[in-house]
Amino acid sequence: MKPTDNSFPAGNVTSLAERKAAKLAYFNREKYGSIIRAARLKKGINQPELARILNTSKNYVSNWEVGKARPDLNMIPGLCEALGISLNTFFGQAVFTEELTSEDRRVLSNYHYLSQQNRQVIDQLMATMLDVQARNLRKYVQENFQRVWYDDLKTSAGTGNPLDEGGHGVYIYLRADRNVCRADAVITVSGDSMEPDLHDGDDILVQYADAISPGEVGVFVADGEGFVKEYQPDGLHSHNSKYPVLHFNDDDNVRCIGRVIGIVPIDARPTEMEQAELDDLQHEAAQRH
Fold first, then answer.
1. 3 state SS of 58
2. How far is CA 65 from the centre of its chain?
3. Secondary structure letter of residue 69 according to DSSP
4. pLDDT tens-digit map of 80-100
5. Which whole-number Å values give the CA distances from 157 to 62, 84, 188, in the listed order?
6. For the segment 267-283, what is each residue's pLDDT rounded down to a tens digit?
7. How many Cα atoms occupy the beta-carbon half-sphere of 116 within 13 Å?
8. In the chain, what are the domains?
9. Please, are residues 75 and 36 in contact by the beta-carbon 8 Å criterion?
């Protein structure tokens, strides 16, 4: 069914600007797949149960959630009711609450004066453009992001932090560059002993290694505590002069985790839209397996 102004679900979307903005936003099917999936999980129902409520097939629901298809406009009110969410929640409050620019108002005003037939032409054109944009975004994130393990336990640049080596952490995505592609893990620095080179809260890129060369900065575990220090034959050195050298003897349980090869740049993390696309790709990969 081609969407028309009359067929678009009104609900609590009342103004002309809201209706047109919601219609435009509707075509971003990847975004709404994530919203449907999150609301369904929060409601505590599975895909077959949601399909039965809506009198549709489980495959349709699955395709909505991974962004392969979108629900018909006339199904959206019932879908929102089944998920226990409002139309505003489904389409995103930002669509209706952010202030319109003068250019937005000009475009919406022009749209208002179009005939019904011409509105359908514009709607189809927007749908095509948004589909192309979504495909381009997917291609971009597939080619430009690297998945890296993030250890959520901080490693001390100070006197030492207890380090649980039980594998606590999550995989994150970072914009790929030479260092990110070489990194095995990301660890957060705690403390100021490596200033001015590393600061408290910095996320560092770590390449796993059993040993590093003198002068290299690495991550070490000593008696259950994690450190980020510069390795020298006489011990582990801080770059902040107020901290002493950590000396160890042969009986101490000291192990090298890896070398620090860089700091995660501020712009390395994906934008909200890029992250949503990466999440969808990961969800699709999990479904295939």
1. helix
2. 16
3. -
4. 889 988 776 776 643 444 456
5. 47, 48, 10
6. 899 887 888 888 888 88
7. 7
8. 16-113 (1.10.260.40), 146-268 (2.10.109.10)
9. no
